[in-house]
Structures are given as C-alpha cells and as structure tokens.
Specification:
The chain contains two helices and 17 strands. It is of the alpha+beta class.
Length: about 290
C-alpha cells in the first residue's frame, strides 16, 4: 500500500520556477514532534539556566551572610570573654566586701549565704569558671547580685549596730565615781554603783552617746529627773540627777543630740550626771564603751 504524500509548492515572485516539497504524513508528524520537543527542551533549558543563576546568587548571598555571621560571632565571643572577666572581677570584689563586712569565718564561710556549686562569698575555695554561654552569664550575674545583697544587708546591720553602741561620753566634766562597789556618799555603807558619776556645773549639756529612742522621761526615785534611751541591739542607757529634760518618750535621737542638762535632782549631794549602760538587761561599765575621753 503506497504512502499518502503531502505536497507543498512554493512560488517565488522573482522567479518563474516554483519549488515543490513532498512528504508523507508520518514524516510531517515526526518533524512536528521534533519541533515540539525542541521547544520544550528550550523552555527547560531556559528555566534551568534561570534557576542556576538564582542558585549562584543565593550561594553568593549565603557566603556573604556567613562571613558577616562569622564576624558577628567573633565579636560576640570577644564580648562574652569581656563580660566573663568583668563578672569574675565583680565576684572577687564581692568576696573582698564580704570579708570587710565580717561575713566569713575560717570554719563556716559566708554567714547566711546559700551553699552553691561555686562555693560561697569569701569562703576562700576554688571558683569554678562558668561556661561562656548567655544563660551561664545570667546565672553568674544573679548569684553575684544575691551575694552583694547579703553584703549590703550585713554592712547596713553593722552600721546600725555601730550607731547603736554608746561610744561617746554623755557630758563634759570630771569623773568622780566609777562602776562597781563603793561607799555610798549618803549612807556611808558599801553598795554597788551601776554607772559613772560625771561632775559638772548645773546646766551643762547632756548628749546622746548613740542613736536610739527615748523610752522614759521623768522622776525615778533617788535618780531624780531621769531619761532612759533604747538604742537597739540590746543596749539601753540611763541619765540621772538631771536639771532639765529636753526630750519626750517616743523621740528618735541620734548620737550627739542634746537630750538634757546636768543637775542635782533626786538623791544627790552635788551637781553631777549619773550615767548607766545596760547590755541585754545587765549593767555594764560605761568606760568600756566610751572612746572619746576618760
């Protein structure tokens, strides 16, 4: 069976001759298929080339980003090292402050501190350097902050205690009688004298030897006009034979404030101040506390 042929005749305008192409249907289909395949392959090649260009651009962008990240990481690592060094310095300074605040003993370490894996403030033990990670640095910072809080409270308590100790003489005068057993100037019998007698002319100022609160003013038997101060931490002081009282119960006073004047009230033979110091309810020799005279 003969193949069916298709004929295409091309007649140029400039020539009288014409051109004739004859081809079978099968050949036409094959050529068409080849052309479609070529078009598809061209589209695929163009798309692949575009993707290749995009991938190349992405690779270059990633390389640039990686170089930037490497630079940032290097800077961050340096910053972490600097922060770690500063935290280590703060830890050492906190330890020195703790020692200065008297928070350590050779046996027990930090008073009131919570034991942790890194030891205690001022304990003298080895200090385990934390890994250089943000959370570790934050944990170290919180630990140092807690220890500084302990030191601050300790120093505040120590400051309050120092302010509460009656360390200055309550008046200027002559020390005429001391603490302990003596002959009573009125009866002549042996009796225990619970304070100091400071002789001075009437009207001589009497000063508070420490911070405190006035808890009593008024007449108190043989002591006559009397003031009693509570200083906290177990300390109280008493001032007797006054001529004038210049404070009232409830007044808060500070070391060096004038609270009264020396007199001769009560059971007294001459103008003087009777001064007592009590610690935890027990009479103490005031001379053990006075630092500025006598």
């Amino acid at each position: 069976m003969s193949q069916r042929l298709n004929t295409v005749i091309v007649v140029p305008h400039s020539q009288a001759r014409f051109i004739k192409f004859s081809f079978s249907t099968r050949s036409m289909i094959a050529v068409g298929g080849v052309m479609v395949l070529a078009v598809v392959l061209s589209i695929v090649a163009i798309a692949y080339s575009k993707n290749a260009v995009d991938r190349r651009a992405d690779v270059e962008r990633l390389k640039t980003e990686n170089r930037e990240l490497a630079r940032i990481n290097e800077e961050l690592a340096q910053t972490v090292v600097e922060i770690q060094a500063r935290l280590d310095d703060f830890e050492e300074r906190t330890s020195r402050l703790a020692l200065a605040a008297g928070m350590t003993t050779p046996e027990t370490g930090v008073v009131g501190a919570t034991a942790e894996s890194r030891g205690q403030v001022g304990s003298g033990g080895t200090y385990d350097r934390l890994p250089e990670a943000p959370e570790s640095l934050r944990r170290q910072g919180r630990w140092i902050d807690e220890q500084l809080g302990l030191v601050e409270r300790q120093l505040a308590d120590a400051g309050q205690m120092l302010a509460s100790i009656p360390t200055i003489a309550p008046a200027t005068g002559v020390l005429t009688d001391g603490f302990g057993t003596r002959n009573d100037p009125i009866t002549g019998r042996r009796a225990f004298h619970r304070g100091l007698d400071i002789s001075a002319r009437q009207g001589t100022p009497v000063y508070a030897p420490a911070d405190g609160v006035v808890v009593f003013t008024g007449r108190n038997g043989g002591l006559g006009k009397t003031i009693r101060l509570s200083h906290g931490f177990g300390y109280t002081t008493v001032y007797g034979h006054l001529h004038q009282i210049q404070v009232e119960p409830g007044d808060r006073i500070h070391r060096g404030d004038q609270i009264g004047m020396i007199g001769n009230s009560g059971r007294s033979t001459a103008s003087h101040l009777h001064y007592e110091v009590h610690e935890d309810g027990k009479s103490k020799d005031p001379l053990y506390f006075i630092l500025d005279r006598f």
